Amino acid sequence: MTESAGVVLFRPAGDDIEIWLVHPGGPFWAKKDTHGWSIPKGEFEPSSEEAQLAAAREFEEELGHPVPPGHLTPLTPFRAGKKRIHAWLVEGDLDATNITSNTFEMEWPPKSGQLQAFPEVDRAAWFSLQDAATKLHKGQLPIIKLITEALQD
């Protein structure tokens, strides 16, 4: 099973909260919005990197910002397909229009022999938990319950 780690940023929004989600870059995700968003996260190798450090690294790589200062609350790891996701919840605020993502290369168009670079994250946005339920990849939906439980404690 692949291990993945990420940070869930949240902020108060009236009587509710909003969470920060990212949309993957590249041609496969370009027209996918419903269930096409994710928490900022990435894979790590448990034998060579701690999950929390990997989560912070991925956050900064995908957004161009360090994790905001504050208490990182660990959420219960959960499975999403063939991945186990480790996530930490932290309160903070970022400007969704001010992100700088790392890039990846892939052959595009297919079978063209040409490599093109794409941002790993092409945009970020704040969503209420209700709206996040229709934006998050289906495998990541358990995180909404985990966030709610963590904030009730």
What is the CA-CA span between the terminal residues?
A: 30 Å
Mean pLDDT reading: 95
N-to-C SSE series?
Answer: EEEHEEEEEEHH
Main sheet characteristics: 7 strands, mixed
**Beta-strand residue percentage:** 35-45%
Number of separate strands: 9
State the shape.
globular
Number of helices: 3
- What is the alpha-carbon Rg in Å? 15 Å
The secondary structure category is alpha+beta
Q: Give unreliable regions as ranges.
A: none
Helical content band: 10-25%
Describe the structure.
The chain has 153 residues and is an alpha+beta fold. It contains 3 helices and 9 strands, in the order E-E-E-H-E-E-E-E-E-E-H-H. Strands 1, 2, 3, 4, 5, 6 and 9 form a 7-stranded mixed β-sheet that branches. It has a two-stranded antiparallel ribbon with strand order 7-8. Strand 1 and strand 2 form a beta hairpin. The longest helix has 13 residues, at 51-63. The two termini are 30 Å apart.
